[in-house]
Each structure stands twice: as C-alpha cells, then as structure tokens.
Automatic annotation (TrEMBL):
<dbReference type="InterPro" id="IPR034660">
    <property type="entry name" value="DinB/YfiT-like"/>
</dbReference>
<protein>
    <submittedName>
        <fullName>DinB family protein</fullName>
    </submittedName>
</protein>
<dbReference type="Pfam" id="PF12867">
    <property type="entry name" value="DinB_2"/>
</dbReference>
<dbReference type="InterPro" id="IPR024775">
    <property type="entry name" value="DinB-like"/>
</dbReference>
<feature type="domain" description="DinB-like">
    <location>
        <begin position="29"/>
        <end position="161"/>
    </location>
</feature>
Length: 173
C-alpha cells in the first residue's frame, strides 16, 4: 500500500518477499522508521543532547536505534561485533563530530532499517531456531529470539525518544 496510508504498518497487509514468520519483525521496524521520521522532521539540533530529569537524550536514542539494530542483526547472523561496531557503541550519546545533524541521524537509522529488512528477506525460516550467542559472554539465544528482540527493543526506544523529544521541545517553547 502507499506510504500515505495512515494505518499502522502491520494493518496494511503482508510485505512482499518477506518470510511469513518474520512479517511482525519487519512491520515493527517499518513502523519505527515512520514514527522517527515524522517526529524528527522539524526537530532542532540544539535540543539533541538535552536530558530532562536525567533521562537519555534524543541524540542518544537516534544513535542507539541504529546501533542496536546493527548489533542484534550481526548476532543473528552468528557474527561477533566488529571494532567499528564497538567504537560506535562507545560513542552513543555523544556527538562525534563538530555538529550532529538530526536528519543525518534519522537517515542513518533509515538505512539500518533497510539493511535489516534485506536480512529478514534472506533469512531461511528453517534456521530461525538455530542457537546464537550474544555478547562476550555468549548468552544463549537463537536467530528468531534476536530478530524479535531487535524489533521490540527498537520500538521501546522509539517510545522513549517520542516522550523525551516532546518534553524537551515543550520546555524550550
């Protein structure tokens, strides 16, 4: 359906070329992208790092949304994190450049969602219960558990991002 369809993504029907068991994961990721893009459309960069009541900043959530998808999908592929991923994790919550642009951060998240959707399309449903280790401790999980957690974790941070952004903007007005 057209992107102008105002229904939540999961109500728009199945996604083409997406394995049936992974449709809910894909729907959640697409919903997250739509919500982030709409919320951040006019968001001022000067408010990115504000932390009302000590909660995580909007900038942190935008970086974390991108990073956590990358990390969890790497684990789902059975890969350890790269040094680049570890470096990105270490900079979440900080502006690594002289100026962080909101739309650049939103675009990075959108590209990560595209990568995740491609991985979902290419995931063999017969391998969803294959064991996977998480982190240095190799905490046991499986492919499906990691993919579902990636979607759940993403939506949780979109909710936190939404509240923080609205509080910060309201306070600034």
């Amino acid at each position: 359906m057209a992107q102008t369809d105002k229904r939540e993504v999961w109500l728009r029907g199945p996604l083409q070329d997406m394995p049936p068991l992974l449709q809910p994961v894909a729907h959640a990721l697409l919903q997250a992208r739509e919500e982030v893009e709409a919320l951040m459309q006019e968001y001022p960069a000067t408010l990115l790092w504000e932390r009302p009541a000590g909660v995580a900043s909007v900038g942190f959530h935008l970086q974390h949304l991108t990073g956590v998808l990358d990390r969890l999908f790497s684990y789902a592929r059975g890969q350890a994190l790269t040094q680049e991923q570890l470096d990105a994790l270490a900079t979440e919550g900080k502006c690594p450049e002289a100026e962080c642009r909101v739309q650049d951060m939103v675009q990075m998240f959108s590209k990560q969602v595209d990568k995740a959707l491609e991985q979902l399309r290419n995931t063999d449903a017969q391998k969803l219960l294959e064991p996977r280790g998480v982190g240095w401790a190799q905490i046991p999980s499986n492919v499906l558990g990691l993919l579902v957690h990636a979607a759940e974790h993403t939506m949780r941070h979109v909710g936190q991002l939404t509240v923080t952004a609205r509080v910060v903007q309201n306070k600034a007005e």
